[in-house]
Each structure stands twice: as C-alpha cells, then as structure tokens.
Request: fold
Amino acid sequence: MQKSLNVLDFERSLMELDKNICAYESAASERGEDYTAVIEDLKKSRQRLLAEIFANLTPWDEVLLARKTERPYSLDYIGLIFDDFTELHGDRLFSDDQSIVCGPARINGRNVMVIGQQKGRDLKERALRNFGYPRPDAYRKALRMMKLAEKVRLPVICLIDCPGADTNLGSEERGISSAIAVNLMEMSVLATPIIAAVIGEGGSGGALGIAVADRILILEHAVYSVIPPEGCAAILETFGRDPGRKDEAAAALRVTAKSALEFGIIDEILPEPLGGAHHDIDATAATLKEAILRHLRNLDKLSTDNLLEQRYAKFRNMGIFDEIVPPTPSPASGEGWGEG
Amino acid sequence: MPAENWFQKNTKFGVIPASNTRSTVPDGLAIKCSGCGEILFNKEFEKNLKVCSKCGHHHRMSVDERIAILFDSGTFEEIDVPIRSRDFLEFPDYQTKLEKGWAKSGMGDSFRIGLGEIQGRRCVAGLSEFSFMGGSMGSVTGEKIAIALETGIRLRLPVLLTTTSGGARMQEGLMSLMQMAKTSAAVARLAKARLPLIVLLTDPTTAGVMASYASLGDILLAEPGALIAFTGQRVAAQAAQGQKLPLNYQTSEWRLEKGHIDAIVQRRDLATIIGRLLGLLHNPPTKQSNAKITKRP
Reply:
C-alpha cells in the first residue's frame, strides 16, 4: 500500500498539488517570472484540500497516520519538552530493552520521571528498538523507574507509542504476561501522580503496561485499541478471518482518539496541527507540554490518599453493561453487590 | 435454563443437576479424546472428571462442573450480580453472539462468582466459563472479578479465581482492555488487605486475561497440559518465523519449568490442594467472616 516516501493514500492528492507549487516556485526563481498569484491560489486550495481530507479520515486512515514514521516519537518530544533528561538503563535482571526509554528530567524547572515507548525510524534504529515491541525487560525497567519516582516523590510522565508487546519465545520465557500484569497492579497503587499521553499507537496490553495513570491524554491523530485491526480481522469470523479487512475492524473497534474520549477512557484530546503532528513538531510538543503541566498542577492539589482513591475509582468505574431487574425482586432488594 | 432464571439469589450448587450440565461432550454413549483419539465412554469419562483415562488429557469443564469438583457439597452460594453485556460499540455480530450465549448457557456472561467452602475452608470464588464467547473478558466479567475481590476484602476471606479465556473481548473495544487495569487494581487492593489470591489456570488462558489478573495470584496453579500464553499458538508460530519452539511451548509443564507457576495439579487433587493452601495461607476465619451473605440489604 505504502509507496516510496511513505505517502499515505489520502495524502497523494496533496502530493500532486505540492509538486505543482514547487514547479511554479522554481519557475519563478529560475526565469524571474511572477507566479505569485497562481502560487497563492494553489496554496489556498492545498489548505482547503488538507482540511477536507482531515475532516473525513476513516478510523483506518487514523491508524496509518498514527503509525507514520515521520510522526514524532517519544525522544523527539522529550527533547522539546524536558530539560536535563538523563536516560537510565536496564531492568537489573536481564537486559536494557530500548523499546522503552526512561529517566529523570525537568519540565519547567520541575523534576519528573519520564518513561517513553520508542520506535525507530531507520532500519538500524528500528532493530535497536525491537520495532517498538517492548519485551518483559522493558516493562520491568519502567517499573524500576516508577518505584524510584515514588521513593523520591517525582511525578511520572508516560509517553505511549507501541504496536503491542513482544510475543517472541524469549519474551514468553521471561514472562511477558506477568511483566505487564505486575505493572498494571503496581501502577494502580503507585503513590505519586502519573500522567500518560498516547502520542502515536496505543497498542493493546503493550501500551496499557505503562498507561495506568491518573490522567490519560491522547493526541488527536493517535489511536488506542484493544488489538491491532489486522489481528482483530484475522481472528474474528465476523471479518472472514481476513486481515485484509483491517479497515472494517478499525471502524468496528473504534480506535480513534475521539471514540476513546466518547467512552470515557481518556481524559483529554490534544489537538494536532492540520495534517498531523509531523507537520509542526514544535507546536505539538508545546501543546503536550502545556497539558502535562496543567494536569500536574491539578494533581498536586490532591493528597496521596485522595490521588490513589481517585485512580482506583477511575478504573473501577470503567465498564458499560446493562443492569437487569431480577424477575422476582424481594422487597428488601436495593443496592446490590454491584457497588464498589 | 432460561437466562432470567439464572439471576436468582444464592443458588446452591452442590451436585450437578443433570439439566444444568453444560457438557462439551455430545449426546451419545462415547466421545473421542481430543488428546489421544481414544474412544472414551461417557459414563467412565464423567466419573473420571473429564480426564482421559488413557492419556490424562484434561478436557474443558463448565463452571457448574468446576463448582461440583472444587466445593464441598452444597456450600457454594452464587453472588447474584444482575448485569448483562451491552453492545455499546454496535460491533458487527456482537449482539447475535450475546443472545446465542445467553440462550445456550443460561449465563449472563462468561464469569460467575460466589462464596463456598473447599475442604471446610471458606473463600470467595470467581469462575470463568469458556463456552460463553471463549471466556473472553468484557465489562461484565471485569465487573464481576472486581466484585469478587472486593467481597474478599469485605468479608476478610481469601479469593480463588479459575481462568479459561481467550483474552479481552474485542467486541467491547478499548473498554475490554481497561478491564485488565480494573481487575489488576482490585488485586492490588486485596493484597493491601493482606489476603491471599489463588489462581487456577485451566486450558486455555491467554492474552489480556493472562496479562492481568490471571498472572497476579499469590499462588498460580495449573491443570496439566493447559495452554497458558500471552499470544495464542497461531500468532506465536508466526512470530517465531522459523525459530524452533519447544515441543511443550506455552503449556503448564513449560511454565512450571520456567518458574512461572507454583504447581501443576491433577484435577482429582484440586480440592485437596486448594483447600490445604487456603488453610495454610489464611488464619481461621473469625465469626464476622463466617457471616452469611444474607446481609444483602
């Protein structure tokens, strides 16, 4: 599907316009002719087209956009948002899995612990980052940093961007399920504020493993899903067990930021520049920074007990179901076992 | 059993009423063991707790059957949670699947909880039912697990969870992923209350369930030969890309060898072992925790 230059299908018509604009611009500079009006017109229609395209993105388009290699990754944001980020390595058990980067840093003069899932752009870095699939060692390293943050009272900032957790033999051998599960449990009681932001791909348990937070933010064109659409389409008879029907699965799963907000799973959508975060990394980083600082200030107002109570309640209340009135209610029946 | 009858209070299960037995064994005199192909007579097979007398393969059991082999006769009281799955995403086919599941199993979802005694030891239990949409965990299952764990805290009782599940229920999208966080957070609370959690892993336990509460037991027991995995075997084989996988990869035996579980327990020994562990890990209940659940307002 993706041809050279990593252009998405819905971006192709923009490319044509860009080519035209370029041609006029070079013609203008080479031959000294005045094409200002034409170029202005073209740029205006480009802007219109872009707005139109982005107003009509399908959920599958959003998945492609979230996975785009031009999209800023954790380290790009870390460089723009934090000062003195000091990367610390290893889980002290097995390895330093670089699909998650961690370390203390400063945001607006305030000390925090940063944990970010990191993909790679070129082949070498992609291999180094295990193509963004964290292994158990990555989750254990992240937990080690969270415990350190709890001890020295630093808030934890997690940047989520991974297609899923690693499923290879080595990861099963070292207990990938357990590594994720332990993080979910420990994060639910970590006595320090946690803010998570989905910046690209929120891939299933792999993402959730560092995303049990007091505030969960998501960038406008990031996605968050229980399973990759391809996997869902491949498993369910509904989609004929055909991974090619990933676009239908993406729509059915409601993977977009908007849906996550609608169902009350995330707290805030952070707007991206028109065309996506990669069109203006500085602006996106500024948006993210402002949101992190604002939510930190709000969480500061809570005592640790309140913080943990609210965090528990946040996840405890997640779930949508129908309540059934029992067929023969006894006179005494009222509040059921359902209340937490 | 029609669905609405299931939401009765404090239904007692001691022996399996014949009409309630949701056996995977088709009607007839005999079945073919899916482990070794041996023909097993139903009567013999049921008597042997659905374990093949030739190869020892542990066939899947329904919740009713599980209750019958684990709990002291007549002690299991179901905790009635009057909730039912909703197709809130309008996910294709979900409503149809739910209706089929309700009709077939008479269950509200893939999970049931209650209180009972195992070898005289009282505990809160949550049991997963594979025949209801592969035992998948959606909002209802997550809620019931949380209630089971919170009931343990309230009554100061240990909790036993038995698992058999393909993972999170895709048809509930991100909400089902959040059940992983919800159930794990409830386990953390049980731990804070210094009460033990025993998890019995049965075939199969994978994905979102394995990567949440199922991995968080203080004690992890498994039946022989169960598939216990983060990713199912099809995906695992794909991911291996020609890499040679151990023959017993992702089975209970492999998990024990890797140090991931505490013990493999034969089905006929489950009640004895779990009862003994409940006794060893939990001090005799006080009067208060013996209180019946009739305290329902």
